[in-house]
Amino acid sequence: MAFVAGVASAQAAPEYTLVIRDHLFDPAELVIPSDTRVKLVVHNQDATPEEFESYELNREKVILGGRKATIYIGPLSPGTYPFFGEFNPRTAQGKVIVE
Amino acid sequence: MLINSVVLVLREILEAAILVTALMGLARIVGLGLTWFYAAAAASLVGVIGLAAVLGPVTDMLDGTGQEVIGAALQYGVYLLVLLVILDTRQRVCGRRHSRFTGWLMAAAVALAVTREGAEIQLYIGGFMSVVEYRQAVLLGSALGAGIGISAGILFYWTLVTRPRRWAYPLCLFCLCLLATGMIMQGTLLLEQAGWVQAGEPVWNSSGIVSEQSIAGELLYAVFGYEATPGPLLIALYGLGLALSLMASIYAIRSRAGGGDD
């Protein structure tokens, strides 16, 4: 049941786009609704790979240079959930703000 | 960049190194030897290079979630193979605790465990080789991280194999149960990330006690897939996976000469 429910809600998830450029996330702050599963499309426009990582969101994914990748997050309670690029943690930082 | 490289490579290496050395420890304890490790090393090399080479197309599969689904399959595969390894170390009529399949099962488990982590390291190092200002720091940091991770694995190996004979086998199986069940945890998180399952609201939050970002948290994650905010699905699958592997271990430990054959 969890599997079926997961796939069904994932298909209907609202979509948000995050760009990695010059080892920075754009936008650095992403506002999403609470209690809603969202589809995050991360487009790495740099030539080098990056790993989207967030301890708070329980997410990690390598995104090759010049490619897009999909990451589902949520449903989440209101709050702030930081994320960073593990390959460039000093510069690639951002947060998901759940309202 | 030097410290980043050390931390990143150490994290990836540690997960695989602990599992690999636990299997090597078990092989030594049951008198199998380590000849199977040559096959494991060769298969791991092929797996790492192969996965890194096709990661782009793999990522694009299944609406951009192919990487997670392949990763979860590798993690569940490791669990299943470790379960079979445990069962295969039951004692035979002749007193042996291994069959002609044990080494192959161990080699396959090692290859799957190393493939995912290794491909990530290869992409990281390969990606920064073209950036001249980072190249030296990335190579040095990666070497240091790999060295520390492999050293931790070697320490774990000797800790297992130098226990008194009576305790070494059950201790090794117990460690493998925890390590393999951690793979279930990680695999399920990947399926959740791909939108295939919903783990549900966190049942507890233990990040105040052990943060996932701390050294202890990283170590616990490597050993048994520590998750500070697990949902009900994760807890249920972890419990089921641990129970199954412990039952298999008890069966293997209690088997006596005359209790089964190849």
Automatic annotation (TrEMBL), chain A:
<dbReference type="InterPro" id="IPR028096">
    <property type="entry name" value="EfeO_Cupredoxin"/>
</dbReference>
<dbReference type="Pfam" id="PF13473">
    <property type="entry name" value="Cupredoxin_1"/>
</dbReference>
<feature type="domain" description="EfeO-type cupredoxin-like">
    <location>
        <begin position="2"/>
        <end position="98"/>
    </location>
</feature>
<protein>
    <submittedName>
        <fullName>Cupredoxin domain-containing protein</fullName>
    </submittedName>
</protein>
<dbReference type="InterPro" id="IPR008972">
    <property type="entry name" value="Cupredoxin"/>
</dbReference>
Automatic annotation (TrEMBL), chain B:
<feature type="transmembrane region" description="Helical">
    <location>
        <begin position="167"/>
        <end position="185"/>
    </location>
</feature>
<dbReference type="GO" id="GO:0033573">
    <property type="term" value="C:high-affinity iron permease complex"/>
</dbReference>
<feature type="transmembrane region" description="Helical">
    <location>
        <begin position="233"/>
        <end position="253"/>
    </location>
</feature>
<feature type="transmembrane region" description="Helical">
    <location>
        <begin position="101"/>
        <end position="125"/>
    </location>
</feature>
<keyword id="KW-0812">Transmembrane</keyword>
<dbReference type="InterPro" id="IPR004923">
    <property type="entry name" value="FTR1/Fip1/EfeU"/>
</dbReference>
<dbReference type="GO" id="GO:0015093">
    <property type="term" value="F:ferrous iron transmembrane transporter activity"/>
</dbReference>
<dbReference type="Pfam" id="PF03239">
    <property type="entry name" value="FTR1"/>
</dbReference>
<feature type="transmembrane region" description="Helical">
    <location>
        <begin position="6"/>
        <end position="27"/>
    </location>
</feature>
<keyword id="KW-0472">Membrane</keyword>
<feature type="transmembrane region" description="Helical">
    <location>
        <begin position="34"/>
        <end position="57"/>
    </location>
</feature>
<feature type="transmembrane region" description="Helical">
    <location>
        <begin position="137"/>
        <end position="160"/>
    </location>
</feature>
<comment type="similarity">
    <text>Belongs to the oxidase-dependent Fe transporter (OFeT) (TC 9.A.10.1) family.</text>
</comment>
<feature type="transmembrane region" description="Helical">
    <location>
        <begin position="69"/>
        <end position="89"/>
    </location>
</feature>
<protein>
    <submittedName>
        <fullName>FTR1 family protein</fullName>
    </submittedName>
</protein>
<keyword id="KW-1133">Transmembrane helix</keyword>
